[in-house]
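ok so heres the complex, four chains, lmk if somethin looks off
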Amino acid sequence: MLSHRNINELVDRYISTSFSVAKRAENLVKCQIGDDLTNDQHYMLRYIYKAQECTSTELADVFEVKRSAITAIINRLWEKGLIERTRDEKDRRVVYLSLTKNGAELFARTEERIYKLVESLIKKFDQKEIEQFMETYEKLDRVLLESKYKQEE
Amino acid sequence: MLSHRNINELVDRYISTSFSVAKRAENLVKCQIGDDLTNDQHYMLRYIYKAQECTSTELADVFEVKRSAITAIINRLWEKGLIERTRDEKDRRVVYLSLTKNGAELFARTEERIYKLVESLIKKFDQKEIEQFMETYEKLDRVLLESKYKQEE
DNA sequence: CTTTAATAATTAAACTGTTTAACTATTTGA
DNA sequence: TCAAATAGTTAAACAGTTTAATTATTAAAG
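and the predicted structre for the whole thing:
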């Protein structure tokens, strides 16, 4: 059982580590991406690349932001010529988003560099350690989700 | 040894979990904070509360942003009456930042609620699991730091 | 000493990402 | 057929960020 003091220490330790890891990972990824894209824009390309085709509503659900925030990001990517918008002929309210040839190439090129980076980092950990870490991390994710539902009651 | 495919899967898994955990933690913390502060503002109060007194330059170093970004945040907190600015009498370039009575009370009140939240969450994990997780997390932090230095060469 | 450097902080302009609220266009369904 | 729902956009406003210029002050070199 953790004491009051231990809990406070743990909170501080978790906050400072998660802040630091997020910041450093962000900076390293930013170095691979270059100046053409922000990290958020790159994550957006990543999702669309993997989905091949998706809608603003889907992106808003996935990234947990309002649709108008998606419109803003997609507009910026569209202005850079990385994204295509195609109206659904059957339901003309719907706009499908996909990467242009340029967009897909840029993403693939960047992803290759990120892959190499991760490959070099991952060597420092053994597989069991990684597995254990990810399991706890995913458990934390589930616990936070439950807590959210409990709080909404 | 991890295969190409395993590395790609791990990257996806890590990205989606860290995104989700960060988002959910942020939302839960936001619920405890209320509408008076943003999460970033709360983190700023936290640091100043613990430091008791600090400068803009110190905050810029800690949070890894430019000093002008700190000025902007501090101005907003100052307008809310949560922060005090005191000029150093010996070196009149320096401005010391500290919490006002109101600021310290607001922080303490909020922190109490966050503490209770964490206490309830932490029960789901045993101490050994937490310790193992934090050790790997901190190791990741160190590995990212080394990688940054290596890249700068 | 005095002039030049450096330092601490701020300001202004510009940008990204975000929300809320209003609006357009289209489809659903009572 | 017409009111309600849905998909998406637009506009205004705000937080947080950077870069570049500015002010005030101190340190240091000659």
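quick notes: DSSP finds six helices and two strands in chain B. thats all i got rn
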